[in-house]
């Protein structure tokens, strides 16, 4: 076992020495990385990160970066009133709550049950999906592609 280990170590050393001899002429022809290149790469990386976080921030502010609500608790719709205040209609099971949301506070303004609920057929439309609706229209001959 020790002989096999010594043989493998010797083979790796010989391989490393031969690779060093082969790559020596190549090293002379390659250009080294200058500090200007590193600065350019760093600025490009910084620009990409700034753009990435700006897009995430804009999506969060516009409300487009929400979680998919498929459970018993879902935000049906929201209406911004100002930069820090908005009205939110939340579905909780069979009830709907109209909430007033501000910077440090959430108030229940109205509770809707039964026929009083708003957007009652919206859940069925979301489950069907846009593609499924278009497919059904095309299959029934009502819509065009």
Tags for this model:
4-stranded antiparallel sheet, 4 strands, 145 residues, alpha+beta, 22% strand, single chain
Your description of this structure?
This protein is an alpha+beta fold and 145 residues long. The protein folds into three domains: 1-30; 32-66; 73-130, no CATH class. Helix content is 51%, strand content 22%. A four-stranded antiparallel beta sheet has the order 1-2-3-4, with no helix packed on it. A hairpin with a 2-residue loop joins β3 and β4 (105-113).
Coarse structural class: alpha+beta
Based on CA atoms alone, the radius of gyration comes out at 31 Å
Q: Report the uncertain regions.
A: none
The figure for the number of domains is 3
According to DSSP, the number of beta strands is 4
Strand order within the widest beta sheet:
1-2-3-4
Oligomer: single chain
Distance between the termini: 72 Å
Helix-strand blueprint:
Blueprint (H helix, E strand, L loop, with lengths): L1 H28 L5 H28 L10 E8 L5 E7 L2 E8 L2 E9 L8 H7 L1 H11 L5
Antiparallel strand pairs: 1-2, 2-3, 3-4
Short description:
The protein is α+β, with helices and mostly antiparallel strands and 145 residues long. It has helices at residues 2-29, 35-62, 122-128, 130-140, and strands at residues 73-80, 86-92, 95-102, 105-113.
């Amino acid at each position: 076992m020790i002989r096999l280990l010594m043989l493998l170590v010797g083979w790796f050393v010989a391989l490393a020495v031969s690779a060093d001899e082969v790559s020596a002429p190549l090293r002379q022809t390659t250009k080294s990385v200058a500090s200007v290149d590193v600065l350019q790469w760093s600025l490009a990386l910084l620009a990409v990160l700034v753009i990435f976080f700006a897009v995430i921030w804009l999506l969060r502010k516009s409300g487009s970066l929400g979680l998919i609500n498929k459970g018993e608790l879902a935000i049906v719709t929201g209406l911004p009133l100002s930069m820090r205040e908005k009205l939110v209609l939340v579905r909780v099971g069979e009830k709907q709550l109209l909430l007033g949301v501000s910077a440090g506070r959430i108030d229940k303004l109205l509770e809707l049950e039964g026929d009083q609920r708003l957007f009652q057929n919206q859940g069925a439309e979301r489950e069907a999906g846009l593609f499924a609706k278009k497919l059904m229209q095309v299959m029934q001959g009502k819509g065009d592609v």
